[in-house]
Amino acid sequence: MLSEQTRSLVKATVPVLQQHGVTLTSHFYRRMFQHNPELKHLFNQGHQHAGQQQQALAMAVLAYAQHIDDPSPLLPVLTRVANKHVSLGIRAEHYPIVGKHLLASIREVLGEATGDDLIQAWAEAYGLLADTLIGIENDMYRDSTNADGGWSGWRPFRVVRKEMESEEIASFYLQPSDGGALPGFRPGQYVSVRRFVGEWGLSQPRQYSLSDAPNGEYLRISVKREDAAVGKPAGKMSNLLHREAEVGDVLELSAPQGDFFLHEDRDTPVVLISAGVGQTPMQSMLGKLLRGSRQVRFLHAARHGGVHAMGRQVRQLAERHPQLQVHVSYEMPRSQDVAGVDYQAPGRLALDQVKEIALLPDADYYLCGPLGFMLEQRDCLKRLGVPAGRIHYEVFGSNPLAD
Question: In the chain, what are the domains?
Fold first, then answer.
């Protein structure tokens, strides 16, 4: 337990963190990578260059300071962070390094505002947080290692099949190079994929949802090629995989992790709502659900048919499984996109306009896609009377979904 003095000192930094948090975390990352460059391979350098990790860490540090009296509301967030850490291979021995540079950054950025008492208070608070995460992560590492077909760290997988699903999404079918068994996983979870990026001279990890249900034969990821846009560089790893990863190549994978997954202990209806490449965890859930008898609704949004991945496969599933109904919206349909076949409605996906499909009694709703899409769909569901406990979501990237 932290003393009252420690908690008071940490809480006193909240206004400073609100104003200078990103400056602090940016300094922290620069400092850590300068003194410990060997840690660069653990961090997404694309997010570093774009400032996403600095922003995410600043928000996390602020939230911890705000909840220092009672951190229990942060437990779901800590569980999500722990899943990410285990997927990336962050271990207990990394925490003292991070702590050293974080405390040094607080002193260096805040200057005269930081006395020894404040640094000691943050050292105690960080130590408690680190011990909590290490405990959660050690349990996850143990479970991953001891599971049938499981492992800890990185395992080589061979690409046995590559399929272009749309103009910008490719699926990679992966089997263990060692010939061993595949692990089970919960539909909706992800793996980290690691590959050397020559331009940076680093191995880089990226997390991709598993896009097919557990089957004992292969793991499948479906990767969107992230092209350059205004203010946004092209994705290094996604372009590398699209351009260079072919059948026979080897990728390194971590064991499946993630706290966004299908609740398989229920028999109530399920509504899957996604946009773009956000359908990848939904494909895994859909495959699992159609092995049973639960009612399923699959609602998807895409810009147009050229970028709509797996549309034909989902339509074929709906023809074979009466419990599945599908609704697709194209924001900008092309002339060759056939209404009523390729898609059901033009424009953005609006749940309040398809209530007869989207709203089912006692249903669970799973959402995945860009942050703006997620916020829009979540808020609409709440307005339509869906309890918050029935809404489950996954957001790609470093941004959390705001409450």
Answer: 4-146 (1.10.490.10), 155-253 (2.40.30.10), 270-395 (3.40.50.80)
Annotated catalytic residue 244: no
Task: Read off the tokens for 170.
Answer: 């490719």
C-alpha 333/C-alpha 340 separation (Å) is: 12
Distance separating alpha carbons of residues 24 and 20, to the nearest angstrom = 6
Q: Which residue has the higher pLDDT, 51 or 82?
A: 82
Residues 8-30: tens digit of each pLDDT:
999 999 999 999 999 999 999 99
**Among all chains, which residue has been given the structure tokens 């947080």?**
129
pLDDT digits (tens, 9 = 90+) for 132-153: 999 999 999 999 999 999 999 9
Question: Residue 89, Cβ neighbours under 10 Å: how many?
Answer: 17
Alpha carbon distance 282, 393 (integer Å) = 11
| pLDDT band of 107, cuts 50, 70, 90 | very high
Joined together, the tokens standing for residue 121 give 């208070």
From 64, 95, 173, 343, the catalytic residue? 95
Among residues 29, 64, 126, 137, the one annotated as catalytic is: 137
CB atoms within 10 A of CB 362: 10
Active site residue 137: yes
CA dist 133 to 130, 189, 245, Å? 5, 20, 34
